[in-house]
Amino acid sequence: MTNLSEVLEEQIQDLYNAENQLAKALPKLAKKAKSPELKQGMVKHLEETKTQIDRLKQVAETLQIKPTGKVCKAMKGLLEEGSEVLEEDGQSGAIDAALIAAAQRIEHYEISAYGTAIALANATGQTKIVKALQQTLAEEKKTDELLTRVAEQSVYPSTPKTEDEEQEEEEAPVAKKSKKTTKR
Fold it and tell me: What is the DSSP letter of 67?
């Protein structure tokens, strides 16, 4: 690599491969999910991912590059980790929590990758592609927020806890109250 434009091109190819890998994996992850909200969120994100792939094709066309030719090793590794959950048996809430953890690692990777691509596009004067990349970045952030909401409002509360976790949960409000009273 000799300049920022080449770095941007490499990033677009990396993202294109990452999104394609994710599009192949999401149906399996969604099938394993037990929470209706999680399953629905993954199916919705699959459709978004297909749109994001099309967007990246358009970005590549604007840059006059091929979107193919690079394997995103980071996504490959993240999906390998996530696929370990597919092999697990256990309580459905715990499995869903593990799926959410894997999915959020993927989303965080994508968020950072799209942020980097946007910065590179701005730095190289490729303002025509910035809007498309920002749209995808916004979708990735929204998916991450959805995963957090499903985890906190649905999956975690319905998942059995150990005796120690239950005891800590019971003591938590008392600890918060005592902190408030000491501030006076």
Answer: S
